[in-house]
Amino acid sequence: MDLYSLIATAKANGASDLHLEPTLPAAIRVRGSLRTVGAPIAGKALLDAAQEIIGVDAWPLFLERRSYDLSKSIQGVRCRINVLQTSRGIGMAVRLLTSFQATIEKLNLHPDFKKLTNHSNGLILISGPTGSGKSSTMAAFIQEINLAETRHILTVESPIEYLFKPHRGYIRQREVGRDTPSFEQALMDAMREDPDVLMVGEMRDPETMRLTLNVAETGHLVLATAHSGSTIEALQRMVAAFPPEMQNNVCAQLADCLVVAICQRLQYRADLKLQVPECEVLIPTIPVKNFIRRGEFFKIMSAMEIGAEQGMWTYQRYRTWLDSRKNWYLPDQEREAEETAEVVPDTVIARMASPAPKAGISSATPEAPAATPAKKAKENLIEIEPVEGGLDAIMSKLKPK
């Protein structure tokens, strides 16, 4: 088994995930559906690959936990890899991440999402099922801030999925297990590191949720993800994660600091040959804040149904907007355009940069032959052909006899 070749195959097929399990063929997920590739994989081959990827130093940690998360660039693809122990042996789940810098526009999200990054404090909660693109959407929010404002951005992830290049923002990225022992420690450290924006990769336990809410309440903009099927379910799960005696306080914190709750799922559009996010958006208006503070989450849906003017979206309303949308960002078309783009030769650039001929000297050129299909591709390319005989021949004709 060659992990690098399998990832290359998954990339070539446009897969989002690659699954490897001993005695089973590799499986790739394309447009939401799984299909197998190749012959069954031997357990020894997977064990060797896992040891190579995890490394000697971290291997004891895998043996202790029976799972290990890491991110790595393989075959030009940024991959999030989970190595796990199963009943058959050691397997892998590999998520192939997109190589481009995600933005609201490139993910085909609603343009109004850009306005949400203007907030200076509070909680932006992004939720959805596993594999629904939550990390990409959160990366898009971070990139929008990075491109537009001079803010100190701190991310805490496990593992780091998207590598950000600072533009106007000042970005620090920390990986749990490598740069910090835990989310809890990183969040406590963050209070002494002067961040304007904090990104929490995932809220997995009550302590992480508590610290995240505390940071959002103290004048910082916090982006975090959670697993749920709706925005209301995401809020309910956060509250339910705490002991009963703390839930009233958590509801009050959520009501005070929530900026927006977004839940998304990916929908494949056959007309575009592309998966696009379909979103539900909850804006904390005064009635919604009251419902959250009192823990009356079942009443929030009625507010969302009539909250279009406040920027709220139900799945149905958002789907209607997607159906009416005309301008789409299509990564495949852009990639094809880049690959087929013609490069102007240096010799042509030199000719175009040369001074114009002096007055009295003919600059006529012979009639060009009919354009061939290869030449038609060079629509914007201007070539200046030399006159037969060159400049010396022209000057000799101009000399007085």
TrEMBL record:
Domain Bacterial type II secretion system protein E: 191-205
Top-rank taxon: Bacteria
Record field: compositional bias (Low complexity): 364-374
Renumbered residue ranges of the record's region Disordered: 355-381
Record-linked PROSITE patterns: T2SP_E
A Pfam family this chain is assigned to: T2SSE
One example GO MF annotation: ATP hydrolysis activity
Database matches in InterPro entries: AAA+_ATPase, P-loop_NTPase, PilT/PilU, T2SS/T4SS_dom, T4SS_GSP_E_ATPase
Annotated PANTHER family: TWITCHING MOTILITY PROTEIN PILT
Family designation: Belongs to the GSP E family.
Protein's name according to its UniProt entry: Type II secretion system protein E
Organism annotation: Pedosphaera parvula (strain Ellin514)
Classification of source organism: Bacteria, Pseudomonadati, Verrucomicrobiota, Pedosphaerae, Pedosphaerales
